[in-house]
Write a structure and sequence with these properties.
Layout: E1 2-4, E2 10-15, H1 24-38, H2 50-71, H3 73-83, H4 88-116, H5 118-138, H6 142-170, H7 173-201, H8 208-214, H9 217-229, H10 235-240, H11 244-255, H12 261-277, H13 283-289, H14 291-309, H15 312-317, H16 319-325, H17 331-359, H18 361-388, H19 400-403, H20 413-418, E3 422-429, E4 432-442, E5 445-449, E6 465-467, H21 476-490, H22 497-504, H23 508-563, H24 572-575, E7 610-614, E8 617-621
Parallel strand pairs: 2-8
Antiparallel strand pairs: 1-2, 3-4, 3-6, 4-5, 7-8
Helix pairs in contact: 1-12, 2-6, 2-7, 2-9, 3-7, 3-8, 4-5, 4-6, 4-23, 5-6, 5-8, 5-9, 6-7, 6-22, 6-23, 7-8, 7-17, 7-22, 13-23, 14-22, 14-23, 16-17, 16-21, 17-18, 17-21, 18-21, 18-23, 22-23
This protein binds 1,2,3,4,5,6-hexahydroxy-cyclohexane.
GO molecular function: myo-inositol:proton symporter activity
Function: H(+)-myo-inositol cotransporter. Can also transport related stereoisomers.
Organism: Hemibagrus wyckioides
């Protein structure tokens, strides 16, 4: 049996074993599905239209808000803690509450996504962002601020799990990786813009934080209006809900061509099969009971876990400190240099967008985590050298208040710096440190000591320097090198790939729940790493903490080496099969041949066999 297709492909069935359960209709569907899948990358039905870019950009505003709202708080906090006299606990609460709320809402987002669709969830997230931004900018006190931060966190969680899924579902296979990675580009772009806004409003003595926190309303409203007026629901979700007519319309609109029948048929055929196979019960239980999807979930959650365990948010958060170690003393200058760090993160994410369809997800992720591990060890060595050359404390304050504090017991700057209650006060003459003391920090403003010569904040040439959280060191260049290397390696791969791969690896019925779980794991690990960093540093010192992250990155590398398959160029409907053979598949089943597709094997009722392309002819071997 053979069939010719409009696109010039001839389909030849090499071998056919009669299967009494297969009907003629099944055969037809199979051939169509395989033919659609067999088209070489770049010639899928309809290819791409400009509309799909508009769609991706509007959805990625969700990523922008994720980045903006998680990034802006550090600058806002500098002003807030002075204006509202916030204790350390309140500062911690206002920062972490958002991430905690994001973890919960990402988990709940799975249900909402499956039930109400991607479009409604994105609109819900932008509505929540708008309300949160308004609450924050008008907040009269810290309790209302907390409510605003929690609200924004709920929006971030839903957006973080919905947007990649939506973009993946509307994209043609050859552009999917790039378009989903644009969402992470928007996350890092949001973090960068947040740091610029922080810098600009840090000069405002009063209410600067209201503008910082409130500005997020603008992109949120824009996204809401875009989805409300002209952006469509995902055609895959519509098909799953049985709205075939609307799904066909949307697919035609997105691909900007009438010629979408092959793609439409292959999606439909597989969704129908899934429906036939579907058993009852909660989706998570079905995922756990179905080996290939369970494996996909382990890979997805593992990727998200190792993204956070390799310390991205600690490195970003402490970039200001790292830069201060390198001799940047002025606070305003340090804020602008953190903006440069955020920009570097953004710039290298752009490299990821460029590379993802060229080298594929697997190579990009493996190269990235390997480089991240090496950079983390450079950072650790930099901190180690700085600790070993730590300047001694040679003045011991004698006033009664100081005598009661633990700070006076320390003999070296390193010990003094690791105690969150103390800071290092010193004079500098060239590379010589003199008249140094370890003093209590002002709990309301860590830029000053609580008493003594470092407490008045004058910037006269004869006044001493105050170092909180760091020690002056001549090895700061090693740490700076580590920071730059870290961002250059992390941002193109480990930053975006966990989101991109998760949007691809689950079959439709498990996609919302799978992404909800993996995004939840990302946020939970994010809270864990940021909340534990200071304690880990206190017990293990800075270099110990960074050696620990190095070890975690190495474990992550081996995990991905063993378990991460290549999903580049495949139809979403074909990706599930990558997890169906062994626990850990290495690479694409067809090796380097990008045209090789292994259609769904052993789906129970239909046994599809394999399909290979050779000089424009698709060969199917049915089993
Ligand atoms: O992919 C993103 C990105 O790398 C961000 O810079 C980081 O702050 C997020 O935690 C991460 O999920």
């Amino acid at each position: 049996m053979s069939a010719a297709f409009k696109d010039g492909y001839e389909l030849q069935i090499m071998e056919q074993v009669t299967d009494s359960r297969r009907t003629v209709e099944d055969e037809r569907r199979l051939i169509r599905a395989c033919a659609a899948a067999a088209q070489p990358v770049g010639s899928q039905d309809g290819g791409s239209s400009r509309f799909v870019y508009v769609l991706a950009a509007f959805s990625a505003l969700g990523g922008f808000l994720f980045g903006y709202d998680t990034g802006v708080v550090s600058g806002a906090m500098l002003l807030l803690k002075k204006e509202m006299n916030l204790s350390a606990l309140w500062q911690e609460l206002l920062v972490s509450s958002t991430v905690g709320a994001a973890a919960l809402s990402a988990l709940a987002g799975g249900y909402l996504n499956g039930q109400y669709g991607r479009r409604k969830c994105i609109m819900l997230a932008s509505f929540i962002f708008t309300v949160g931004g308004i609450i924050l900018s008008l907040a009269p006190d810290k309790t209302v601020l907390l409510v605003g931060r929690l609200t924004v966190g709920l929006g971030i969680g839903v957006a973080s799990m919905t947007v990649p899924v939506y973009i993946a579902e509307v994209s043609p296979p050859q552009l999917r990786g790039q378009l989903v990675t644009i969402n992470t580009l928007f996350i890092t772009g949001g973090q960068f813009i947040a740091s610029v806004v922080d810098g600009a409003f840090s000069y405002m003595e009063h209410d600067g934080w209201r503008y910082m926190l409130g500005l997020s309303v603008v992109p949120a409203v824009l996204q809401f209006l875009g989805f409300f007026f002209f952006l469509p629901e995902s055609p895959r979700w519509l098909l799953q809900k049985g709205d075939s007519q609307k799904a066909l319309e949307v697919l035609t609109q997105i691909r900007a061509t009438e010629n979408v029948s092959n793609e439409y048929d292959s999606i439909k055929c597989i969704i129908e099969e899934e429906e036939k196979e579907a058993e009852g019960g909660p989706v998570l239980c079905r995922i756990l009971a179905c080996a290939p999807v369970r494996r996909a979930l382990i890979v997805g959650c593992g990727l998200q876990m190792f993204q956070q365990l390799s310390g991205i948010n600690t490195v970003m958060y402490y970039s200001a400190t790292i830069l201060q170690m390198s001799g940047v003393r002025d606070d305003k200058q340090a804020i602008w240099l953190s903006a440069a760090t955020a920009f570097t993160n953004f710039l290298f994410t752009l490299v990821g967008v460029w590379l993802v369809e060229r080298v594929g997800r697997r190579k990009l992720t493996l190269g990235s985590i390997l480089g991240t591990g090496v950079s983390l060890s450079v950072l650790a060595v930099g901190f180690l050298l700085s600790a070993q050359a730590s300047p001694p404390v040679n003045l011991h304050p004698t006033d009664p208040m100081s005598l009661n504090s633990t700070c006076t017991h320390y003999r070296f700057c390193e010990q003094c710096m690791l105690d969150p209650n103390c800071g290092f006060c010193y004079y500098e003459n060239g590379s010589n440190i003199s008249d140094s003391s370890c003093e209590r920090v002002d709990p309301a403003n860590t830029e000053l000591a609580a008493s003594g010569r470092c407490s008045n904040g004058t910037k006269e040439s004869l006044s001493p320097f105050w170092a909180y959280n760091y020690c002056p060191t001549s090895y700061s260049w090693v740490v700076l090198l580590g920071l730059i290397l870290y961002l250059a390696f992390f941002a193109p791969g480990m930053g975006p790939m966990p989101w991109t791969v998760n949007s691809e690896i689950y079959p439709l019925w498990a996609r919302s729940t799978g992404n909800a779980c993996s995004a939840g794991v990302n946020w939970i690990c994010n809270v864990l790493v940021s909340l534990t960093f200071l304690h880990v540093a206190e017990y293990l010192t800075y270099y110990g903490a960074f050696f620990l992250y190095t070890a975690l990155a190495v474990i992550g590398f081996f995990f991905m080496l063993g378990c991460l398959p290549e999903t580049k160029g495949l139809m979403l409907e074909d990706i599930e099969t990558l997890f169906s053979r062994r626990l850990c598949t290495c690479g694409t089943p067809g090796g380097e041949n990008p045209h090789y597709i292994r259609p769904r094997l052993d789906l129970g009722k239909l046994h599809y066999g394999t399909l290979e392309l050779e000089e424009g002819i698709a060969y199917i071997s049915l089993q």
